[in-house]
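Lab notebook, design round three. We kept the backbone fixed and only want residue identities now. Task for the bench partner: fill in a sequence for the structure below.
Input structure tokens:
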């Protein structure tokens, strides 16, 4: 998961209040991709995090889940998937 405290601190440190963060560039030199890369390991990802990691849209993600190309689990209102499953998908392993 993304360390929300870190994002909050970055948000506060640049002096922007009540503004929306760009999800890709949090601060000069610090991107969401870098944070995800350092914190994910073999964690469970949400749909949004999975789409960002794979750089695909939500409809494409859901298509791959429906086709069985990505193994995901419905949890509450959303879908959860292991990062290791996404890595398997990217490698092209069956």
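Proposed sequence:
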């Amino acid at each position: 998961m993304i360390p929300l405290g870190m994002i909050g601190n970055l948000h506060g440190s640049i002096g922007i209040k009540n503004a929306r963060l760009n999800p890709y560039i949090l601060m000069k030199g610090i991107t969401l991709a870098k944070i995800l890369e350092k914190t994910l390991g073999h964690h469970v990802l949400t749909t949004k995090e999975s789409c960002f990691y794979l750089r695909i849209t939500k409809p494409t993600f859901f298509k791959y889940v429906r086709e069985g190309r990505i193994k995901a689990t419905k949890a509450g209102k959303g879908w959860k998937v292991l990062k290791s499953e996404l890595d398997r998908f990217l490698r092209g392993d069956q």
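Keep this in mind before ordering anything: Residues 47 and 78 are 7 Å apart (CA to CA).
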